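agent> Task received from the user: take the single chain below, predict its 3D structure, and emit structure tokens. No templates, no multimer pairing.
agent> Plan: (1) validate residues, (2) run structure prediction, (3) serialize to tokens, (4) report one or two observations.
agent> Step 1 OK, no nonstandard residues flagged.
tool_call: predict_structure(input=
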Amino acid sequence: MKRVVPVAVGLAIGVAVGFFLGAMVTRHDESIGVIYNGTDETLLGATIAADFPKSSGGYLPEVAAYSIDKLQPHHTYTVRLSSHRPTKLYVHATTAGGKELSSEKVYVESQGVVFALVSSDGITLQYEKLSNRADWH
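)
tool_result: status=success, residues=137
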């Protein structure tokens, strides 16, 4: 009976570590989106959306949008973008005063971070590509 508890604890820790490592491996090529509300008012809604080209049949093969309601002033929203292929992204936001803000589109590869700064004048995007660990020397 004394050996059952350490074995059970070891098994539980092994499962947790395996799950964590598996999640890292399967999600390593996804990008991350970060929206910062730099205004002095709450954003009623903010959305990071993908601009996938239409297929030859005229339909969108995949639509991806990530939204948050009520992003407080000077707060950040972070989301993992699940697209595994290069695409163009843009950000749209609505202020508490009803002002509609939109960014330009930015080309994003499958690994990187998209930073969106929402100000009272508009939305500025910056994309930083993450390096593959295999590229590190």
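agent> Step 4: summary for the user.
The chain has one domain: 29-135.
agent> Done.
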